[in-house]
Specification:
The protein is of the alpha+beta class and about 70 residues long. It has one helix spanning about 35-50; strands at about 1-10, 15-20, 25, 55-60, 65-70. It has a single domain (about 1-70), classed as Conserved Hypothetical Protein Mth637, Chain: A (2-Layer Sandwich), CATH 3.30.1200. The radius of gyration is 11 Å and the shape is globular.
């Protein structure tokens, strides 16, 4: 399953997943430095969908706030 997510890195509100229409907004504590925010996104989505972190991968938008993520359910 592919999901479009909007990431808010460095958030004090997170880790949190909010659903806005057909898009997920992810609030992660990690800053967008050296891929730390991407790791936070993967961990948060794995927890949200109840799958292992190895089953979640960023397909597009590695350096952008809007990302396309593949989740193997």
């Amino acid at each position: 399953m592919r999901v479009v997510v909007r990431v808010k890195p460095g958030s004090t509100k997170g880790p949190l997943v909010e659903e806005v229409g057909d898009e997920l907004v992810l609030f992660v504590r990690e800053k967008a430095i050296d891929g730390a925010a991407n790791e936070g996104v993967i961990a948060l989505l794995a927890q949200h969908f109840g799958v292992a972190k190895s089953r979640v991968s960023v397909v597009r938008g590695h350096t952008a706030r809007i990302k396309q993520v593949e989740i193997d359910l």
